[in-house]
Amino acid sequence: MAKNEIFLGAGVAAQLQADKIATVPQAWAGVFESEPLCAWQSRVRGQGYREAVIVTTKFGFSLRNASGIDSWSIIAGVRQGTTDGTLADVERIAAAWYAENPAKRVVTREAVYEAPSTQEG
């Protein structure tokens, strides 16, 4: 699975990652122990931190919460009538969402890869 890229809030993302590494035990390098990780996520959410991710769907692009704590809920999507599904529109919505509290918000984009060519040549 590819890692998401930071779209907005790189400083907040770095701060949260450093806090997680400092406070959550790792079972092995880069793999955090489940119970302490859940406790950390709950604490961070309680402090008002939120992350959203721009994703691709069969309906176009959408913006959704990037946490199971928030049920991966959709913030903006075509089916909800809150975006036209273009990347430009979802990025605009993401920027507005981020601007509501830039000290505690992060927006990422899922890594997108080009489909391999099916042409022989």
Task: Please characterize this protein's 3D structure.
By secondary structure, the protein is an alpha+beta fold. It has three helices and seven strands, in the order E-H-E-E-H-E-E-E-H-E. The chain has a domain at 5-18 and 50-109. It has helices spanning 10-23, 34-46, 87-99; strands at residues 5-8, 26-28, 31-32, 50-57, 60-65, 74-76, 105-109. A five-stranded mixed β-sheet has the order 1-7-4-5-6. Strands 2-3 form a two-stranded antiparallel ribbon. The longest helix has 14 residues, at 10-23. The model is unreliable at 113-121 (pLDDT under 50).
Query: What's the overall geometry?
Result: elongated
Task: Please tally the β strands and state the result.
Answer: 7
* Helix/strand class: alpha+beta
Number of helices: 3
- Helical content stands at 25-40%
Strand order of the largest sheet: 1-7-4-5-6
In round numbers, the mean pLDDT is 90
Largest sheet: 5 strands, mixed
Which percent band covers the strand fraction?
A: 25-35%
Low-confidence stretches: 113-121
Estimated radius of gyration: 16 Å
The run of helices and strands is: EHEEHEEEHE
End-to-end C-alpha gap: 30 Å
Brief digest:
This protein has 121 residues and is an alpha+beta fold. It contains three helices and seven strands, in the order βαββαβββαβ.
Keyword list:
single chain, 121 residues, alpha+beta, five-stranded mixed beta sheet, two-stranded antiparallel ribbon, 3 helices, 33% helix, elongated
List the helices and strands and how they pair.
Blueprint: E1 5-8, H1 10-23, E2 26-28, E3 31-32, H2 34-46, E4 50-57, E5 60-65, E6 74-76, H3 87-99, E7 105-109
Parallel strand pairs: 4-7
Antiparallel strand pairs: 1-7, 2-3, 4-5, 5-6
